[in-house]
Structure formats: C-alpha cells, structure tokens
Design brief:
single chain; about 325 residues; alpha/beta; Rossmann fold; 2 domains; five-stranded antiparallel beta sheet; 12 helices; 18 strands; elongated
C-alpha cells in the first residue's frame, strides 16, 4: 500500500536573507508499506536533506509531500508523530537514562503531557525491546552501550512509536560489519513483518544491494532514479551514480573495481570459486585477467584435475601451487617477455 508520495517536490535550504538553495527539484517519489528502501548517493547529494524534509524538520522549497493521501502541512505535530518516526545520525546526550526509559519516549505521542504509561504502553515497549533484540538491555544505562546497541535502542524507540513510516539517516554509520548486517536484518524484518515503510540512507552500497526492496539513487546535478536493485545494476544506472576516475562498478561481480590494469595480461582458465578469488587477487595487484586463451599471453593458470591446487604454465615452466599467495609471488618474479 502506498503511504507516501511527493508531487513536484523541491528540497534544499532557505537562508535568512530569503534566498533558496535548491538541491533537487521536480521530485516524484513513492514509498510503500512492507518495503525497505535504501537511499544512496555521494556526500553532499542531498540524502539527509530529503529525509529531514520528509520528516517535517525543514520545509520543502516547492511542490508537496503527501502521507496517507494528505499533505504533510495539514498535520499537527502530534498527528505527524503517530505517522512517522525518525532516527538521525546525531545521538542526543541523555545522561544516565536507562534503555527502557529511552524506548519509552517512543510512546510520547500517546501518553500526553505527563508521560504516564498505562498497561498498553508498557506492552508496546516490551514488544519493541523484543523485536529489536535487546530485552536484556532494558536496565542498562544508555551511555554504557556500544554503538551497535545504541542504534538498536533508537530503532526500538521507533518501533514503540508505532508509526507506518520509519526514516533513518545512516543507521549503519560507525558500526563494524557484523553490526551493520544486524541492523539491516532488523530493519528488513520490521518492514516485512510489520508492514512498515522503511526509508534509510547509507553509504554501504554492497549491503544495500542485498537488503533493499527498492533503491533511490541521488547525485549532484542528477535526477533521482528509483527501482529494484537488480534493474538499476543491469541498466547501468547504479554504476553511473558512483563511477569515478579509476572507480567503476562491475555488473557481473556486483562489486566496484579500482584502477585500470597496469601490468601484464594473465589467462585464468576455468570456473571455480578458487579461480574467482585468484582473479580478484591478480586484479588487485594490477594485472589484466583474461578468461579466453590468447597466443600473445604467455602465462596461463588453471586448476589441477582434482581442483585442489593451481597449475601455472609459462614458457615451458609448469608449477603447482596450493595457495594464491605463492601464485602471486611467482607471477611477480616471472621475467618480462
């Protein structure tokens, strides 16, 4: 179900002297319940500005944004707080507050001025702690948590807010790799199981390709492009938003490559996971890797018949290697032709 739609939206900054700096205009976007959407783009492309505009933290410079078929400008703050929750990059200083108290803040749109929690509120908080995977942290001081645990607390707070929309600005920033994966798994499960529309910005491009139902691509002086990850990759649009000098996106491997080959060509013949990693190692060292035989190329590597070792052939030299490091060392010391 469609829960958010923009109409000819313009985003940017409004200065005190009455001037506007428009980052993007004519924006036509839609968010659907049950989907996780990743917002990708280089620094300065407007990702945080878009999320802050969607959240009502800064005004649109043109056009309109509709949530549940109603303009965001027509909602009162308390009404909006029941429709969308936001996790920003900056973490507030909350002193000695416990995790439970932090998550309980998510109930503020429902508890009134005094913040009294009733039985329903406490049940929602318990469920949020459980769904975020942190029930054992309820009595911990927030400041004592790791970065990954803190992010889970903020997600639990958003879950306790019970909104159909969740916006997160770089929720995986500063986390180690396992924690990044945990956060994205949690957000995907939240979107799918609770039918929420989850929008997050991130610089983790490879993880976005694996976790996103939809991707929005933003670039300076480029229109916002949307689609499922696989279509954006196959069309070349994904790579075009990140290709840079000596950086390009390989549609076959789904990875970015860095720099052109600067050393001799080497043939790696066959298909096997070991050969795939050998190709990566050779390319990392600056070699041009070919798959087909070429009489002008004098170094060929394939697997032995039992597929356990590497077999290198070069100008009468035939050697067997058990690991990639030894292959690379031999190639680097091979005499030039």
């Amino acid at each position: 179900m469609k829960v958010l739609k923009t109409y000819n939206l313009s985003i940017g900054y409004r200065f005190n002297r009455g001037e506007d700096k428009i980052l993007h205009k004519h924006i036509e976007l839609e968010l659907y319940s049950g989907e996780i959407t990743c917002l990708l783009g280089p620094n300065g492309s407007g990702k945080s500005t878009l999320i802050r505009t969607f959240s009502g933290f800064q005004p649109a410079l043109g056009g309109d944004l509709f949530i549940d078929a109603k303009s965001i400008s027509q909602y009162k703050p308390k009404e909006l707080a029941r429709l969308l929750s936001v996790v920003l990059t900056e973490h507030p200083n909350v002193g000695n507050m416990t995790v439970y108290a932090m998550v309980a803040f998510g109930r503020s749109p429902y508890t009134g001025f005094l913040g009294h929690l009733n039985k329903t509120d406490r049940g929602v908080i318990e469920k949020a702690l459980t769904n975020a995977g942190i029930p054992e942290l309820r009595n911990r001081q927030f400041h004592s948590l790791s970065d990954g645990e803190k992010q889970k607390v903020f997600i639990a707070k958003s879950l306790a807010q019970e909104t159909p929309l969740m916006f997160l600005d770089e929720p995986t920033a500063f986390l180690d790799f396992p924690s990044k994966v945990e956060i994205l798994q949690l957000l995907r499960k939240t979107a799918w199981d609770q039918q929420k529309a989850v929008l997050l910005s991130t610089h983790d491009l490879n993880l976005a390709l694996q976790f996103a139902d939809k991707i929005w691509l933003m670039g300076s002086n480029k229109p916002i492009v949307t689609g499922v990850p696989e279509d954006l990759v196959l069309s070349g649009k994904f790579g075009s938003y990140f290709d840079h000098k000596n950086i390009s996106f390989d549609k076959i491997s789904g990875m970015f490559t860095f720099g052109a080959a600067t050393r001799r060509a080497i043939i790696v013949s066959g298909q096997h996971v070991k050969l795939d990693w050998l190709r990566k190692a050779l390319q990392r060292k600056g070699y041009e890797v070919l798959n087909a035989e070429d009489t002008s190329v004098h170094i060929m590597i394939r697997l032995t018949s039992d597929q356990q070792n590497f077999k290198l052939k070069s100008n009468g030299l035939n050697k067997i290697f058990s690991n990639i490091e030894d292959v690379i060392t031999t190639v680097e010391h091979a005499p030039p032709l």
